[in-house]
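Technical appendix A lists one of the benchmark inputs used to test multi-chain prediction within the project. The record comprises two sequence entries:
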Amino acid sequence: MLLLICFAVLVAASLAVWRLQPPADPQGRLVLTWVSDLNPLRTEQAKLFEKLHPNVRVNVDPDNGGVEKVIVQSLAGVGPDVYDAFDTFQTVAYVQSGVALDVSSKLPQEGIDLKKEVYPGTFNTCFYEGKAYGVPTNVAVDGVWYHKDLLKAAGVEPPKTPWTWDKLIPIAQKLTLKNPDGTVRQYGFLYDNWNWADFFATFGALVFSPDGSRCVLDSKPAIDAVQVMHDLVYKYHVSPSPVEQSSMATQGGFGSGTITFFGAKRGAMALGGRWWLSTLRSYKGLDMGVLESPYGTQRKYHMYGRAVLVNPSSPHLREALEFQKFMADPQYLALINHQADGIAAFERANYLPSFEFDPDHPDEKDNVVWRDIAARGIGWSVSPYLNANTASKLVQDQIDLVLADQKTAAQAMRDASKNIEEAMKVSLRDDPALKKRYEQAGGR
Amino acid sequence: MKKQTWAAWLFISPNLIGFAVFTAWPVAFSLVASFTNWSLERPQTSYVGLRNYQELLGDQKFWLYLGNTVYMMLGLPVALFGSLWLAVLLNRKLPGIAAFRTLLYIPSFASGVAIMLLWKALYNPDYGPINQSIRLLYGFFHIHADVPQWLLSTKNLAGLDVEKVGITGSQFGLGARDALNIMGVWTAIGGNNMLLYLAALSNVPEELIEAAQLDGASKWRCFKDVTWPQLAPTTFFILVMSIIGGLQGGFDQARVMTTGGPSNTTTSLAYHIYSLAFEQFRIGYASAVSWVLFGFVFLATMVNWRFGNRATSYV
């Protein structure tokens, strides 16, 4: 009997502790969970929403970021209220998994017409098969950052744009400086191995045919794009190999190692977005300029950016939709531009004088360049017949081999194409409805 | 049932319920899932029989990653004998021996992620202390050779190919898999295995050693013929646990240090399962791979049990 009483006391104590836990918000506000990245800028963005909606506290939750976590948690009924999709691949995965709310009819009611107001390059992150799911939080396109003093020291004038990759090479060679022992002291041009989408866009290369039924990586544009990536490293020696890149070692802060490497002036030019400023603003004494990225066969640039999506099973659906609508708020758009968190996705915000010149950052005189590049931004090609993560990984695997000088660009793209086609076959085999749709669309 | 039995069941019920809900049920469910085409991307799931298992047999990646997993277990014997050697050293009655024992146990209680990040820095091909030392040695002995690229290289001491199961001469060298092996040996030598051997060594009856010494046995002979047989049950236990851990391992290192690269050469079966389930969302197929991995673990344990037990003698 005594044991039973002990057990009952333990259960009662557990219940009491559970009941006594502090409220999610001490002020009794509704807590809206936003899964986004670790970028410290998010806190200020959340605070702006809280200011406009005093009854809501936004809990920025970077720890549960990642497609797998959002999908699994949302399907289990404990997902976030709103979450970011960072690229086309993620949006497709969320929609196909059924954890993204279709807001096609809701947005017009709020006076938002995405097709007219945001950059077309973001459409793939917002729309899927004609339906709207996301509202872009910001967008990014990559340009060429350069250190004005390093160009001056090498006697190089900032190149005239538009320019092609061929034009970049001799300039980058002049800017590549070596130590007496032959090691490189300063690279002419930096890029990350995952920048392949940038190179692809400037050559008009696609992963999939427009209807998504075939992988077209074994095409001349894709091979040419990868060849340029390879040649910058191994033929012209103006960019670091993966081994050399690792020596750059991320030195902390938000973003990749390449940003800090560029900030430390180990590279004279670098392929990157305006969002790099969120790290580079903390560096003292940098005098940087921005150029439109070089192009291959077409003056188009890869546009990427986040979009905020709503979890259809959110218990705070009204507030979640308010948060999505907040992405179009002029105050939010101005904050994005002021923070240099890419540029505002709603074009109108980038034609205001406050974007062209920010008195808090008077040295940043090239904002117009970002706007011009964005106007030429294009989205990414996806296939409804293959998980986008899988496709991306299969491409990246092959690009890595090229950048490790273990495969030719042509061979790598042929293998990537073959691997993607095989993965697509498995995907179609596992999903009869998808296969039927594929066959109806003319696929074989 | 007696009152006390009821009470016992009641008290273990929280643990039992937790085990049933969070371990037994998912394990059983994953077996069922392995016979389906369950994908997080699709609302419909259907029974596909043994198709996942058939696909797995023909999936080159599965065999490649199994090869990686086995390759990254090659350090196990070194770690095992290293632990024994360290335990023998620490089993002496010397001043400050407790401090040495604590120091050598550090890899076990230090944060795994911190250790991995530390090793990542050590392996930096240009600025890492390991390659700096190798360069110094090369300079001293006038050797003109490239230093290993460690975590960035697909090379390995067995010359395993990157994209297909087989051996290629061009892949021979030191690379990421070897780097993880070395780190694994370092971590395992001073860890729990050392403690187990220390405990076992302290249980070896001193009179047996004294008797051998009286019979004129050398120190080595005493160790080989008296101490080592007494350690057999511990060695057997460590071996079994290491093989199980090795087959299931490689996830943390891949996640923290290499993301499975370069070119998937450090992708172990555990990391492959994660990637299949949570990056490609193929839960059904990932479950099948998990059960095949379980089969390997079970088989390895049975083989050990069958043949290892035979060698475990009690003097």
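The first helix of chain B runs from residue 3 to 33. The mean pLDDT of chain B is 90. Comparable benchmark entries are summarised in Table A2.
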